Amino acid sequence: MYSKLFGYPVQEEEVLFGHLYFMPNGIILDSDGMVGRPIPEWLPVSLKLGTTDIDEAKDNVQELGFKLSYGIDRGPKVSWFLFKDQDGNTLMMCQDH
Questions:
Q1: Using one digit for the tens of pLDDT, what is the confidence trace for 27-80?
Q2: Which InterPro entries match (predicted)?
Q3: 82-86: long-range contacts at Cβ-Cβ below 8 A with a sequence spacing of 24 or more?
Q4: Residue 24's domain spans which residues?
Q5: 93 by DSSP, 3-state: which?
């Protein structure tokens, strides 16, 4: 799911110990200790991403299978929305104006 969001192909050789995934842009995803744990109803934003087109970004994350948890809020300086991955992690997408 994250590989598609960031536009990188999944490469199994980049997964270490079954839970560390090293992405080409330097991001490391780590699921250690979280498999099988209950997902809290609310979690703080764990990652903030930027875009130049908030509407296109919203459509894209939904097409990739992420769930929208807060629709687009269009402020005078920034527009943003919140979405969740399949593990319940909350992410934020922002467009500066």
A1: 777 766 666 666 666 667 778 899 999 999 999 999 999 999 999 999 999 999
A2: Glyas_Bleomycin-R_OHBP_Dase
A3: 82/45, 85/1, 85/2, 86/1
A4: 1-35
A5: strand
